[in-house]
UniProtKB/TrEMBL annotation:
<dbReference type="Pfam" id="PF00581">
    <property type="entry name" value="Rhodanese"/>
</dbReference>
<dbReference type="InterPro" id="IPR020936">
    <property type="entry name" value="TrhO"/>
</dbReference>
<dbReference type="Pfam" id="PF17773">
    <property type="entry name" value="UPF0176_N"/>
</dbReference>
<dbReference type="InterPro" id="IPR001763">
    <property type="entry name" value="Rhodanese-like_dom"/>
</dbReference>
<protein>
    <submittedName>
        <fullName>Uncharacterized protein</fullName>
    </submittedName>
</protein>
<dbReference type="InterPro" id="IPR036873">
    <property type="entry name" value="Rhodanese-like_dom_sf"/>
</dbReference>
<dbReference type="InterPro" id="IPR040503">
    <property type="entry name" value="TRHO_N"/>
</dbReference>
Length: 275
């Protein structure tokens, strides 16, 4: 049974192999929290197919799910995704897409890990739990426009990314605890819970995977207010509402280093020169 997944942008019914700017390399990112009893067997299968197609990037597999970032010619990337989605466990996968003029990865890595995003908190298993409430991008924009949620509570955006990612771009006024790795998040919550109590908290990250786990952890803390994850993270927000209430770009873990609110490579962000 599918318990939780990243609601990424769906492939269109008809998918061109070149985007409107003439770029030919399709970059995809997606995750899915779903139980996987055979991660090593799946690893061998996925690595073989991606190698055959000449794709590059990283695929992480764990008993809790899959997290992937791949790039290559559009037809080859989509063929790999279609084959994966033929397995009913992964049918909900619907990658977010962006384009570039070159593959932003140097090699292909397909790895089995204890977690697809490391939190080191065994009680947080999105594949076994009801999904944390997800807030659509348009609703977050509306709440930030009006300065409160629909019940009149103040809204805070909580950045669950590493500090160097936040430096490249973030929501205006977001809470940033300067964590250096996601496994520090639970201790940061304990140290700063007073900042969240009594407010509507919207956790966010790049594509949704960290803020999904973060929202489940926050819900355990009895903060006395609603807890949400931003549906699809920053990348989905850019896709649906642009840069409203957001300053800068979005750091990505490949050779593009950052994308702008148009989801185009943005190599000139000053913060990138510091990292």
């Amino acid at each position: 049974m599918h318990r939780s997944h990243g609601p990424c942008a769906r492939f269109a019914d008809v998918n061109p192999d070149v985007n409107l700017s003439g770029l030919t390399i399709l970059n995809i990112s997606c995750y899915l929290f779903v139980g996987i009893a055979d991660p090593h067997a799946l690893r061998d299968q996925l690595h073989a197919h991606a190698s055959q197609l000449g794709l590059k990037g990283t695929v992480l597999i764990a008993e809790e799910g899959i997290n992937l970032f791949l790039a290559g010619p559009a037809a080859d990337v989509r063929a790999w995704v279609d084959a994966l989605r033929a397995d009913e466990r992964f049918a909900p996968l619907a990658p977010k897409e962006s384009w570039s003029d070159a593959v932003p990865f140097r090699k292909l890595l397909v790895k089995v890990k204890p977690e697809i995003i490391r939190m080191n908190h065994p009680t947080i298993r999105p594949d076994l739990s009801p999904r944390a409430p997800a807030l659509p991008a348009a609703t977050l924009k509306r709440w930030l426009d009006q300065g409160h949620d629909d019940d009149g509570r103040p809204v805070v955006t909580l950045d669950t990314r590493n500090g160097f990612e936040v430096d490249v771009g973030a929501f205006d006024g977001a809470i940033d605890w300067r964590i250096t790795k996601f496994s520090e998040f639970p201790e940061a919550v304990k140290a700063h819970r007073a900042e969240l109590e009594g407010k509507t908290v919207v956790s966010y990250c790049t594509g949704g995977i960290r803020c999904e786990k973060a929202a489940l952890y926050l819900a355990e803390q009895n903060l006395g207010a609603p807890i949400y994850q931003l549906e699809g993270g920053i990348l989905k927000y850019f896709e649906e509402v642009g840069s409203a209430h957001y300053h800068g770009d979005c750091f990505v873990f490949d050779e593009r280093r950052a994308v702008d609110p148009e989801l185009a490579p943005s190599p000139h962000n000053p913060a990138l020169d510091r990292h």
